[in-house]
TrEMBL record:
Organism (species): Gemmobacter denitrificans
UniProt protein name: ABC transporter substrate-binding protein
Domain Leucine-binding protein: 23-357
PANTHER family with a match to the protein in the record: BLR7848 PROTEIN, LEUCINE-SPECIFIC-BINDING PROTEIN
A Pfam match: Peripla_BP_6
Protein family per UniProt: Belongs to the leucine-binding protein family.
Signal peptide: 1-22
CDD domains from the UniProt entry: PBP1_ABC_RPA1789-like
Presence of keyword Signal: yes
Alphabetized UniProt keyword annotations: Amino-acid transport, Signal, Transport
Superkingdom to which the source organism belongs: Bacteria
Amino acid sequence: MKLTTTALVTLASLGLALPALAEIRIGATLSATGPASFLGDPEAKTLEMLVEEVNTAGGINGEQIELVMYDDGGDPNKARTFATRLVEDDEVVAIIGGTTTGTTMSIIPVAEDNEIPFISLAGAVDIIEPVKPFTFKTPHTDRMACQKIFEDMQARSITKIGLIAGTDGFGASMQAQCKGVVGNYGIEIVAEETYDPKDADMTPQLTNIKNTDGVQAVLNTGFGQGPSIVTRNYAQLAVGLPLYQSHGVASKSYIELAGAEAAEGVRLPAAALLVADLLPDSDPQKPVVIGYRDSFQAKTGAPVSTFGGHAYDAFMILKAALEKAGAEPVAIRDAIRETKGYVGTGGIVNLSAEDHLGLDLSAFKMLEIKGGDWTIVQ
C-alpha cells in the first residue's frame, strides 16, 4: 500500500490526483498493518502529522514536503521492494522506516548501495554497529536495554535470572546482546527458553523457568503480542518473581493486552515520553514530549507511544538536516551526522561519523507498571 501526503490533503487512499506542490520528496516504508502494526501505525500517523504541520507553516526553506509512504506489513521482502521503489521510481532524497529489525535489515542494502540517507525506527544494535555510511536509527539499542535492566537488577541484589526470548529478529538480537553483557553485572542466566512470536501460550516455557532452582527474576526479550501473553501466563502461574520486559513493549497497548492486574509490577526501560507529566520541569525533554504527545492525541484521538516518538525524532532530525543542507542526499547525510544537542522524545541526541545513534544510557528511564499505568523507578 502506498500513501502520498502533501500540504493540503492526503488523497492517495481516495485514488485522486495529487496537486503538484511538493518539491522535496522523502520516503517511508513502515509496518502500518500486520503483526507489528502497534509499532508502525503510530509511526505512520506521526509522519503524516509532522509533514502536514511543516507544510502548513511554509515548508522547508520555502519548499513543500511530499511524503511517499508504503505499508510493508512487517514483511522484509516487501520492505526491500518498497525501498527500491522509493529510490528508483519515487526518487526520494531520504528514507524513514524499518519499523522492525527484520524490515530494517532488508532496507539497509538498498539505502547504502544508492547512497540515500536512511533513519531506522527499529531496536537492534546491529543496525548501526558497525557504522554504515548512510544508515542511522532513533530508538535506543537492545544492548542498551539489557544494560539498563541489569543495572536495575543489580540494585535489587538479583544475581540469577531466567531468560525467555522471542525468536523474531528483535527478540533474538536482544537475547544475544543480553547474554553478551550479563556477566558484567555479576548476574547469571540459569534458565533459558524461547517462543515463536505467533505462539498463543508460553506456559510450558515459564513453568520450566519457575521450576529452576535459584531463579530470582525473569527477563523477556521480545515485542508484539508475545510479551503480553508471557505476562498473562506469568501471572496465571503465580511465579511470584520480578518480571522485566524489553523497551519493545513500551506503549499503553501492552498494558491493555496483558491486563493491568497481570502487568502490575512489571519493569522495563523506556523513553521519557511515556511519563511526560512525571518529569521535573527542569528536564529539557519535558516540553518536547508533552508537545508531541498533546499534538498526536489531538490529531489522532489515540494515546501516544514511544514508537511514534521514534518517528518524531527521525523526522525532526531529517528536517533540520534539510534546512541546513538542502535536498542532495550526500549533503543530507553529512548534516544528519553533525546533529548535536537535539532534544527529542528518546533523549538528547549527539551524532557523529562514528556514532549513528547518538544516545547513551541516561536517555532511558526505568519504569514500573502500577495501577495500570507507568511510574518512574526512583
